[in-house]
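hiii, so i know i said id send this last week but things got crazy w the move. better late than never?? heres the sequnce for the chain we talked about at the cafe, plus the structure i predicted for it. fair warning i was half asleep when i ran it
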Amino acid sequence: MPDQPVVLQKRFRHEEEEERKYEKEDNLAKKLFNVEEGQLCGRTPFSWFLIFLFIIIFWICIVFYWSLLYYVFASGLSGEYPRYFMDQPGLSFEPCIIEKGEKRIEYSEGSEKHIDLYTEKIFKSLAKYGEVPPNRFGLCTEESDFGYHHLQPCFFLKVNKVIGFKIDAYKTGADMPKEAPEALRTYADELSSESTMKKIWISCTADPPLQFLHFPAPYVEDKDIELNSGTFYVPKDESQLVVENLIEEEKQISRENSNYYNLNDFKRIIAVRPSNLTHNTNHSIKCQMWAKNIVQETQSTNSLMSRGYIRFRLGVKAPGTHL
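okay and structure toks below
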């Protein structure tokens, strides 16, 4: 056969790149919607139907399972009282600041910033209950800066309310354990037997020793901490809340807490004031509750948590010195 002429067609690189680009675009369009095979994003309508059916059934099962759990747990709860009760009231104090793993009240007498830090915490903790009744806390008043400028810093002990708890009180000082401070036992013996029957006694001791004044007295009464079911939230009306002597910040704090606290809560708060504190001495303070059915113990998992008592450090620096 005679040789056939070979025709060579010259192709430029940009033409080849454009062809590849068109091919990619065509492939992408087919992946999104392939008319020939009836596919959308690579799946047939029946395949998409199965996917959406699975999603719907899956979420129906999730909702059913959550509703079942909610019903099981809710059926075991009462709207009037909690399912589990504390076996005794808790004890807390203000101003409570935790530093280096310890609760502390330590400040420099020459530092307004340090003093304001503690007095502000006291102010806010009391304001949520309303206006402090006159003379309730003796010398520990906002007007005196709670004693923080006079080497007599007050701290406030609060006993929590407990549903169903009934005080089994020590009726005399001799009835108290030997660990109870002598001053507390003497105080209890000076009261009539009837007035000692329904009280949780409160004491504070210090190392090195200090003398403490308690306002209004070193005890709380049963009626102020014992609660029956259904009465643990006591709302107060606006007449109790908006008192002319309250500043606007106090009113706001009281409104936010009005469904949980009221003026009667001041009866379970005791102000404590050291009377012979000296500069630059660090004291270890221990405040305890005393009743026959009050247990005093430290939780093994958290040294900051305790039952029946609280511990903290107390010290006041003279201006320009360190503890």
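btw The CA atoms of residues 131 and 247 lie 10 Å apart. thought thatd interest u
miss u guys!!
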